[in-house]
Specification:
single chain; mainly alpha; 3 helices; 62% helix; 0% strand; flat
Length: 61
């Protein structure tokens, strides 16, 4: 049976092995990674793309 498709947001799957590997990463390293990714995405996105992503997350499109 297919899962119901909802508007907005996104989803993905991870394996138990992937979760265990991520849990082994120290919290400080996880936060550094998150900050670096956030900075990269902010620099790489145009204002138009950023607006579209925000609308998508809110379920407006």
């Amino acid at each position: 049976m297919a899962a119901e498709i909802k508007r907005g947001g996104y989803s993905y799957s991870v394996t138990n092995e992937q979760i265990k590997k991520w849990q082994a990463v120290p919290p400080e390293s996880r936060l550094e990674w998150l900050e670096e990714l956030n900075c990269f995405l902010h620099k790489a996105q145009s204002p138009k793309t950023r607006r579209i992503w925000q609308q998508f997350r809110r379920g407006e499109i």
